[in-house]
């Protein structure tokens, strides 16, 4: 009977270890699920969603964001979902790496998107490219 108890405890311990490792792996996958922003021709792609440059109304570079309400994936390193940003009364789509500033707030005709890259230099580079492309498109329109 003692052997059965001993092996039972070992079995439960192994299930616990496997479950813990699986949960850890899932959180790591969610943290790395944010994709880089791509700007090509007259479009910008953010997390598999494509927006026309002509639909961009405003671009802001934010040093900080505070999120409230909403829903989505909130992991130790990223926020990905719909949240109220900096006290706005509406929800924005948010795709950010936490603790890596700055953040880009892109206002499109029908929505607001807040995002950043995985480091400051890349984020500033995307911001400058967006500004240039929006100005070019507005001057040719």
Please provide a written account of the structure.
The mean pLDDT is 84. It is elongated, with a radius of gyration of 21 Å. The protein has two domains: 1-31; 36-140, no CATH class. It has helices at residues 2-31, 120-140; strands at residues 38-40, 43-46, 49-52, 56-62, 67-74, 78-85, 91-97, 103-108, 111-115. The protein is built from two helices and nine strands. The strands form two sheets. It has a six-stranded mixed β-sheet with strand order 4-8-9-7-6-5, with helices on one face. It has a three-stranded antiparallel β-sheet with strand order 1-2-3, covered by helices on one side. It is 36% helix and 37% strand. It is α+β, with helices and mostly antiparallel strands and 141 residues long. The longest helix is centred in the N-terminal third of the chain and has 30 residues, at 2-31.
Strand content: 35-45%
Main pleated sheet: 6 strands, mixed
Q: Which strands sit side by side, in order, in the main sheet?
A: 4-8-9-7-6-5
Give the rounded overall mean pLDDT: 84
Residue runs with pLDDT of under 50 for 5 or more positions: none
Structural class, please? Answer: alpha+beta
Q: Total strand count, please?
A: 9
Layout of secondary structure:
Layout lengths: L1 H30 L6 E3 L2 E4 L2 E4 L3 E7 L4 E8 L3 E8 L5 E7 L5 E6 L2 E5 L4 H21 L1
Parallel strand pairs: 7-9
Antiparallel strand pairs: 1-2, 2-3, 4-8, 5-6, 6-7, 8-9
